[in-house]
Amino acid sequence: MTTLSERSAKFGAAEGDNGIIRCDACPVLCRIRPGRSGACARYANQDGLLIRTDPVVLLELAVEEGQKLVPFTEASEDWDGNLLNPARAFVTGIGAGTTYPDYKPAPFIVSQKHNGVDTVTVVTEGIFSYCGVKVKIDTDRHLGPETAAIRCGGEQVGHVTTAEYGSQMLSLGGVRHLTGGSKKEGNVTCDTLLKLCNGEAVELTIDNGHSVVVQAGKAPIVDGNPERRMRVGCGSATVGIFAKQWLGHVDEVIVVDDHITGVLTEHQAGRVLDMRPGGIRVKGRKSTPGRYFQVANPGMGWGGTDITDPLSIIQRIDPAVAWPGLRLLLTSTTGEDALWCVLDENLVPQPAAMPSDVRVVVDRIGENCEPSTCTVLFMAGAGGSLRAGVTENPVLLTRSVQDGTTKVTLGGAPAMLWPGGGITVMVDVLRLPKNAFGYVPTPALVAPIEFTLPRALYEASGGHTSEIVAVTDVIRAYGGDARVEFANPVNPWPLRADG
Amino acid sequence: MAFESGRVSWREPQVGVLPGGRLHLQHGPIDLVIKVEGDPALVSRSYAAASERFHTVLHELASELNLLRKPLSGDRPPDASSPIARRMIAACWPHRAVFITPMAAVAGAVADEISAIMLAATPDMRTLYVNNGGDIAVHVVDNEMLRIGIVPDLAEAMPEAAIRVCHGSGIRGIATSGWRGRSFSLGIADAVTVLAHSAAEADAAATIIANVVDVADPAVSRACAQSLDPDSDLGELLVTTHVGALPENQVLAALSAGSDQAQRLLDAALILAAALVVQGKWRIVQGRSGLLFPMA
Predict the structure, then answer these.
(1) ipTM for this model
(2) Fewer C-beta neighbours within 10 Å, C or N terminus of chain A?
(3) pLDDT tens digits, residue range A275-297?
(4) Chain-chain contact of B29 with A39 (C-beta, under 8 angstroms)
C-alpha cells in the first residue's frame, strides 16, 4: 500500500468496485467518483485515492525544545489570526502544488523578515524526473554483488553500488528505471521510491544475492532476519581495538570478516604487545602481517562471509610454532558469533566453554557496535524548468544556490548541494515532515522544495516580485486548512542565515 | 468535542477571523464569511452567537440528508426537524411543478439561519451579511446601504454589475447559480443571480432559472448527475459539464428561455430581480428599476 493510499484510508474508504470513495472527513460522507472532488472541493478522488486538495504544510519553530505553540498576542501589529506566529512559521512546499507551464510564478513566493533581513522563500512542489534514493544499509552481510540488479516485484528498480565502511549501498530509481524502461518498470520504480521516501518499508531482491527489507531509520531485514548490529570495524580494526583487553586471557584471536580477517599474534597489535606467535594460518590472501583478504566468499555467515563453521577458515596450523593447550578465540566483527577452542595434543582445536574474562571482551565488541540501520537519501536535480517559477533568469538562481546565497530546503529540511553545475541536491528523508513526497503518473516523484534568499537579491535576480506575499497573508488564507508541524529539532531553522 | 466516525474523528467546525473584521466559519462543505457593521461590542456578541449556532449546523443537515435529497411533489411538504431543513423545504416548495429537491436551497438556508440567529442576538446592528459561497443573506437598517457586486462568470469572479441593498428594497437574500458553480446545473448559464426576500428563496430560484437557461448545441457537454456524484440529488438527470463557444443566436435563445422563467417567478412574487449571463451577454429581469444595474 502506498503512502497516498494510507492517507486515503485515513479519511475515506473505497466503496464498491467502481472506484468510488466514501469521504469520512466530515459528516456529509460524500461518495466521490474518480477524478471528482467532494462537496467541499477540499477532498478529491485521484485514481482511487482520496487526496486533500490543498494541505500546504506550515512548519512552526518552537522557541525551545518542548515549548508548544507560541500564542500571538492581540497587541501585535495588525495580526488578527490566532493560529501561528508568522515570525516563527515557515511555509513548506509540501502540498503547495506546482504551477504549469513552468514560467508561471511558483505557488507561494513568501516574504518574511528574519533577524532584520527581508527574505523571500519561493515555495513549490517540484516534479522530479531525475531522482532516486541512495540507501545505506549498515551490515556486513553480503546482500549481492556490486552492480547486481535490485528488483521489486520482479522489476529492476536499481543496483548494488560501492560498499562503504560497515555498510552496503544501494542506488535506486533514476531516469533509466523511471522512464527509460517499460511502463511497468517505471511505475514500480516510482512506487518503490515513494514508499522509501515517505518512510515505508519495501522488500527488495538482489540478483545472485538476497532479499532485504529496507525502511528509513529501521534495521534491515535480510532474508527474513532483522539485522541487529553494524560491525565495530573490520577484522583488523577489531583486533586493534581489543588486543590489549585480550592479553593474558587468550593465546590467539581470529576475527572473521569478509573484508579483512585479523589474526592477533601476527598483527602489529599482537607484536607490539610481545605476544607469542600462534602459528595458525588462515585461508585467503595475505595483505600485511595478520591481515587477510578473501578468507571465504561473501555470504550470510560469520562477519559477512559464507562461513558457518569458523574452523573451516583455518588453512594450516604450524606444528613448529603452535602448542598443545593454545587458547584460541574466533569471533565475528559484531561479537554475535564467537567460538572458544583449545588445541589438543594433536594441535586440533577443540571447542570448549568460553571463560568469563574472554566473554566480557566478546560482549564488548557487541556493545561497541552501532545498531544496524537503513538510511535513505533522496537525490534529485532541481536545475531544470522549475527554476522558471522562481525567476525569469534561471541561471542566476543556479549561481546563487551554488555560492550559498540562496538556501535550498526540502520540506524545511536542509539539502546537501552537490558542487558543480546545476542544482543537484540530497536530503535525508527522515528530516522531512511525514508524507512529504508524492508522485505524478509520468512517472516521477513530487517533492517539496523551497529556495530562501534575501529579498533584495531576489528582486535583483529577475524574481517574480509582483507575486510576493507576506507570510501573514499566507497564514491567514491557508492557516485553517494547513497542516501545522513543529520544525524537526535536528534541522537548522530554514530561515536562519547561518543554518 | 470531536465527532467520532469509525477510525477518524471529524474536524470540528473552524472559526477564524479574516481581514476587515470578518468572521470565517467553515465546516465540511459549508464556508461562511460574515460581516457585521455596528458597535464593536455588538459585533462581537453577534459573532459569538453565529459561531455557537454554527457548531451543529452540518450535523443537523447531514442527519436529514436522505429526506433533503428527495424531489418535492404532492400536496404537503415533508416534515423536517432541523430549522435549516425547514427553511430549505419552504423555499423550494413553490417550485415543485418542476424537478426540485430541498438541496437547491441548502446554501441560502444556512446563510438565513445564521443571519436570523445574529439578528436575534443583536437586533440593533447597522448592516449584516452572511456569505455562504456566493449565496448571501443580507440585512440593512433604514438609512444604510450595502453594495454587492455581481460576477458574470463564476470562473472569473470579477464584478461587472452591482446591487444596492437598502432597507426599503426588501432584499434579504442574494444567490447565484451557474454551470461552473459548486452545484450541478441543467443549463448553460455562466451566472444567474437572484434577489429575493431570503437567501434560501434566492438560492432555489436561481437554481430553477439557471436550469432553463439552455439550448441544444454540440458545444454543450452533459453527463448523468450520478455518474459524476453517486449521491447527487439530481439522480439520472443530465447536468452540464462543459460549454464551448456558442453562436450568438443560441446564447440569446438560452437567455430568453431563462428570462421567461425569471419573469414568471417575478410575477408570482417569488423573486425581486434576476440577472442572467451567458458568454458575456446579460439579461436583467426586475419589477422596478434600481435594484440591479450594470457597472460602467
Answers:
(1) 0.71
(2) N
(3) 999 999 999 999 999 999 999 99
(4) yes
